[in-house]
Design goal:
Chains A, B: It comes from Halocynthiibacter styelae. Two copies of one chain form a homodimer. By secondary structure, chain A is an alpha/beta fold. Chain A has eleven helices and 17 strands. In chain A, the strands form three sheets. Chain A has an eight-stranded parallel β-sheet with strand order 9-8-7-10-12-16-14-15. In chain A, strands 2-3-4-5-6-1-17 form a seven-stranded mixed β-sheet. In chain A, strands 11-13 form a two-stranded parallel ribbon. Chains A and B meet through α1, β3, β4, β5 and α3 of A and α1, β3, β4, β5 and α3 of B.
Amino acid sequence: MSAPTPSERAYVPFVSVDNMMQLIHRIGIEDMLSGIAAYIEEDFKRWELFDKTPRVAAHSTEGVIELMPTSDGTTYGFKYVNGHPKNTKEGLQTVTAFGLLADVYTGYPVLLTEMTVLTALRTAATSAVVAKHLAPANARTMAMIGNGAQSEFQALAMKVICGIDTLRLYDTDPAATAKLMRNLQGLGMTLHPCKTAEEAVQGAQIITTCTADKQNATVLNDNMVGAGIHINAIGGDCPGKTELQADILKRADVFVEYPPQTRIEGEIQNMPEDFPVTEMWKVIRGDEKGRTSDCQITLFDGVGFATEDFSALRYIRDQLEGTGLFQQLDLLADPDDPRDLFGMVLRATPVADQA
Amino acid sequence: MSAPTPSERAYVPFVSVDNMMQLIHRIGIEDMLSGIAAYIEEDFKRWELFDKTPRVAAHSTEGVIELMPTSDGTTYGFKYVNGHPKNTKEGLQTVTAFGLLADVYTGYPVLLTEMTVLTALRTAATSAVVAKHLAPANARTMAMIGNGAQSEFQALAMKVICGIDTLRLYDTDPAATAKLMRNLQGLGMTLHPCKTAEEAVQGAQIITTCTADKQNATVLNDNMVGAGIHINAIGGDCPGKTELQADILKRADVFVEYPPQTRIEGEIQNMPEDFPVTEMWKVIRGDEKGRTSDCQITLFDGVGFATEDFSALRYIRDQLEGTGLFQQLDLLADPDDPRDLFGMVLRATPVADQA
């Protein structure tokens, strides 16, 4: 008896890290950031459709492992993601991730993909979509505090989507800044390394804070933030991990993705429970105002939400066809008679007997 | 420039459906059921160590998609599983699943595996572990109401772990019973097909109900259940889906896995919130009594809990070495310098340029 061949339905397209990188080269990273941003914006506009829940987190001394599910009623998606700030010292990624889309009607998965690289793209695309709505109209200069794994993606997304052409860079480790400068060389931005965070924010219309310490570090003080600035605060994203001095929050208008999650994980975790925030989807849809004056300080307290991963997964699924940049994974048992799972197992001839 | 080769850490062992079936043939299905049962029992005994949460469910008109995470502090695991009773009519599985283990210390995944087949094994192993503690000592005959995809696994686990040698079979569809009888032929059990559920329960010491309708069906009436019986009720496992007449619950001593989940999903969803139940881990550890008399009716209101998947995943991980029955999946981005994710993407030479 020969081993049964899995049916088409048993296979799930899988995008490996290598194939994701090939896809980025094929599409072009700037076009891919724009494309993902468009999907994120589209999904923010139909926000009410989504099943929303704060992510399901397993915390340990060393870090956190999270599941981030959501659904628009037709398609279900989730991401597995870890956050281990101590990993960098051991030569590992702080954040690794993979994600999945499934068909709500059958419950069958339809896409599995690496999301370490994809998360970097969607986080940057989200920041840029938000900045497009909140930053001063003629913003050209961004201060980037924290020059780690996420920084180049942030820079390019802000360039493509918001017209940022000048970066003022600071990291506690100058080697990180040097790495960023090497990577962004020749990509059309003017780069200024700075010796302090104070120096980096001078003349910037956007300040991005993107550090990864799991402590209530203060990378931005109140006296560093002038009028008319947009702050893109994305490093504070779990309990006990914030980047801004609380006084800044009191002066700024704060914009968030999903308040129940941001109040647990974002900068506003240090503020009272009724601290006023505006939901970004309302601004993007035109239901609420974003920036209302030139001297207003707007602050995006970004923690990353499941719908953004969903948007990125949808984008990848829509780009894959015809590229060959995926493998077919034999992930689902699919016997001819669905009630005959046992029979399928019985009839699977051991490899050794097939010779 | 050549494409960078992913480092060892970037790879995650993946067990496909075909490899899972090969592993079952290599180990032997009865030994595998015993092995998984031993891991389940071990993990029930260290119950208090686990991070426990009711599963995270996305319900739709057609079914449910669930994530079931847990952690023992050292290893993290989760399962993706759907439940779509209407799928069978369309030639698809009611339940498909896959699962993952990760290292809590780094957050890096260490195993990805199909779990449609593995879930069938762990569900059966759990039922048998429970029956070992609750069924009458000399139980030899089991009634099996519902002869679908889970039934043969239940039968074999009860044979290996509890000494059941006779099955009395009933399904609303005789074709399902015929399929079960074909599959279990020659595996050392006496099989009696029955025309009604009433006929099936006659002379049985264990009654297993294992049907898949998402309705409050009543497959077992109070007058069908005599003294001294153990009921293994595993088909009622989500809101609106139960199998037993409520009167049976009132006469029986009810044993559950994790009360907060069972009160939502199990047979006891129809009972008051303070309906008394005993947690199985306490019985298995010897802290609470299981069966206390010959005429007692014991009822396992099994819904499936994350720790059982965790046990099954641990078992698979421990069996894999040296078998070659897995693929290495390029799931994790792992640049040489962990902060240089962007550089890794930049340096990935497109496939077309490698010729």
